[in-house]
Design a protein that fits this description.
alpha+beta, Ribosomal Protein S5, domain 2, Butyryl-CoA Dehydrogenase, subunit A, domain 3, two-stranded antiparallel sheet, 61% helix, 15% strand
Length: 298
């Protein structure tokens, strides 16, 4: 499968639209989340498309904390200006009479028009059909935003895929190195044990060789990490398969990270070699880097 199958929970989508005297911009942003959480910021009066937006997103993604915003503007060129001419005529008569009586200048027309209730500006109300057609256009535009959003998450996913593969390669390299060292542990333990015993008993006199062999076996068994390295190898194979599966794999990957950590911790605790312990610590660092990237996978 192509690495583009992997989708990130981080993404951004945008779409612009226009219908008659309306124009708008949709924006969708998301970051990682345990489930799917959709938050809306749209103008009031658009309840009819609210549910459509949420259901469309849930069909397109399975995880992520998503923020949806709509900036909707209406061209006010169709605004109606209503002048109360009857009241204005009476006001002019009164103003002229007052000006003549008190020998004052006549008020300007803009002063008269600014008086309350003389001029009324109202927006043209759209009919039901216009509103319905506008909402259809809004929904169609939102689907474009979703397509842009999904593409962004897939592009981010492709970059995450490459990082995860590189980290898995490093984990596998460290594990092989650890296996080579672990294979030498029984022999090293035997030599170390025999050296300690010989320091206590000159020329190994009075030592039960069978008993000594049993002790060496016990020590070697306690330090045997083959079970852990076998499981780690199996988890690496599973991780590679998951990375190339279709659909959301983030939760399964998070579980694998826990298992990788568990086996590595056991490997470190059973290690009888400083070199193997250091490799175990390097493995833990690489696994932690892997976990950080996995947290963004859908």
């Amino acid at each position: 499968m192509s690495e583009m199958n992997l989708s990130s929970m981080t993404g951004f989508g945008r779409a612009q639209g226009q219908f008659e005297n309306y124009n708008w911009v949709w924006e969708i942003k998301s970051v990682n989340g345990k489930g799917i959480d959709i938050r809306m910021r749209i103008p009031s009066g658009l309840d009819a498309i609210d549910q459509h937006i949420k259901s469309s997103l849930r069909k397109s993604i399975s995880r992520g904390s998503v923020n949806v915003s709509l900036q909707l503007q209406k061209d006010s060129s169709e605004a109606q200006v209503n002048v109360n001419e009857q009241a204005l005529e009476k006001l002019i008569v009164v103003a002229k009479a007052a000006a003549n009586k008190y020998d004052l200048p006549m008020p300007s027309i803009d002063s008269l028009l600014s008086i309350r209730d003389i001029v009324e500006i109202s927006e043209h109300d759209d009919d039901d059909k216009t509103i319905k057609d506008r909402d259809i256009a809004l929904k169609s535009s939102f689907l474009e935003a979703i397509q842009s959003f999904i593409k962004s998450r897939q592009e981010e996913g492709a970059a995450t895929y490459k990082m995860l593969i590189d980290i898995l390669d490093e984990i596998e390299r460290l594990l092989k190195e650890g296996e080579e060292i672990a294979a030498k542990q029984p022999h090293a333990l035997k030599e170390k044990f025999e050296e300690k015993v010989s320091n206590l008993f000159s020329n190994n006199q009075g030592i039960d060789q069978d008993r000594m062999a049993q002790e060496v076996v016990i020590l070697a068994t306690k330090a045997d990490v083959k079970e852990e390295t076998d499981r780690l190898n199996a988890h690496i194979i599973s991780a590679r398969k998951l990375l190339n599966e279709e659909g959301p794999v983030g939760r399964k990957m998070e579980f694998l990270v826990q298992e990788l950590n568990r086996e590595t911790n056991t490997l470190c605790s059973k290690s009888s070699s400083i070199t193997l312990t250091n490799i175990g610590l390097s493995l833990k660092t690489a696994i932690d880097q892997f976990r950080e990237q996995v947290l963004n996978v859908e």
